[in-house]
């Protein structure tokens, strides 16, 4: 996938995520944003800020891309903007979005109806 194709996919998903965030948080407190930053060799391509909880570290759900052929995408929790944890490494951007959605729902205590 070229960088242009990746950015198009991210922008398309960004709108989808903003809609999900707005639905989940009613007032749109969580924002899906494209604020480029890096974690080692990973380009962080999307950041979803979770509502802050008193006494807890700032939490974001982020999606990264390392531009390789094997598991090029990851969905992580990111604490305080620089501590990445609990990654799910996947092959496609769509799989990364699904992992990110699961992480968001877990953070919010929402159970997926089967």
Walk me through what this model shows.
With 114 residues, the protein is α+β, with helices and mostly antiparallel strands. The chain has one domain (3-108). 34% of the residues lie in helices and 31% in strands. The chain contains 2 helices and 6 strands; from the N terminus they run αββββββα. Strands 1, 2, 3, 4, 5 and 6 form a 6-stranded antiparallel β-sheet that branches. Strand 2 (37-39) and strand 3 (42-49) form a beta hairpin. Mean pLDDT is 77; it is low at 24-30.
List the helices and strands and how they pair.
Elements: H1 3-25, E1 32-33, E2 37-39, E3 42-49, E4 59-65, E5 73-79, E6 83-90, H2 93-108
Antiparallel strand pairs: 1-3, 2-3, 3-4, 4-5, 5-6
Short characterization:
With 114 residues, this protein is of the alpha+beta class. The chain is built from 2 helices and 6 strands; from the N terminus they run αββββββα. Strands 1, 2, 3, 4, 5 and 6 form a 6-stranded antiparallel sheet that branches.
Task: Quote the average pLDDT.
Answer: 77
Based on secondary structure, the structural category is: alpha+beta
| Largest sheet properties | 6 strands, antiparallel
Strand portion, in percent?
Answer: 25-35%
Oligomer: single chain
N-to-C span: 33 Å
Radius of gyration: 13 Å
* Uncertain residue segments: 24-30
Helix proportion range: 25-40%
- List the total number of helices: 2
The coarse overall form would be globular
The total of beta strands comes to: 6
User: What is the string of helix and strand elements?
Assistant: HEEEEEEH
Q: What is the number of domains?
A: 1
